[in-house]
Amino acid sequence: MGDHVRHLRLDRGWKIRQLAELSGVSRSTISQIEQGTGNPTLENLLRLQHAFSLDSIEGLLGVPPSAGMASVVPGAPIKNKT
After folding, report:
1. What is the pLDDT at residue 37?
2. CA 74 to CA 40: how far, in whole Å?
3. What is residue 44's predicted lDDT score, i.e. its pLDDT?
4. Which domains does the chain have, with CATH numbers?
5. Where do the H-state alpha helices sit in the chain?
6. Rounded CA gap, 81 and 7, in Å?
7. For 74, what's the count of Cα atoms within 13 Å in the CB-facing half-sphere?
8. For site-directed labelling of 32, which of 17, 24, 49, 72 has its Cα 20 to 30 A away?
């Protein structure tokens, strides 16, 4: 995941500082995520998803939508499968 976050950031020409300002995630946390040394919280993943203007966390993780992960939309109700 860290390599993909770095790729998304660099594709936009952003420094870690800029992503931190846009997302509200600290520079040290972003650096840890990119280096693969940190375990991001769901809140931080959602903040990064929003900063990158991605439709789902799948895009942040570099997972193709067909892989079957559920889309996460901040504020959306969680639906139980019954």
Report:
1. 93
2. 16
3. 95
4. 2-62 (1.10.260.40)
5. 2-11, 16-23, 27-35, 42-51, 57-61
6. 34
7. 12
8. 72
Task: Round to whole Å and give the CA distance between 74 and 82.
Answer: 22
How many CB atoms are located within 10 Å of the residue 19 CB? 22
The SS3 call for residue 40 is coil
pLDDT of residue 42: 92
Q: Quick one: tokens of 69?
A: 């992960």
Of 48, 47, 70, nearest to 58 (Cα)? 70
Residues of the chain with confidence (pLDDT) below 50: 68-72, 79-82
Give the Cα separation of 34 and 43 in Å (integer): 16
- Dihedral sign, Cα of residue 34, residue 40, residue 45, residue 47: negative
Question: Could you tell me what percentage of the chain is helix, strand and coil, using 3-state DSSP and rounding each to the nearest 5?
Answer: 55, 0, 45
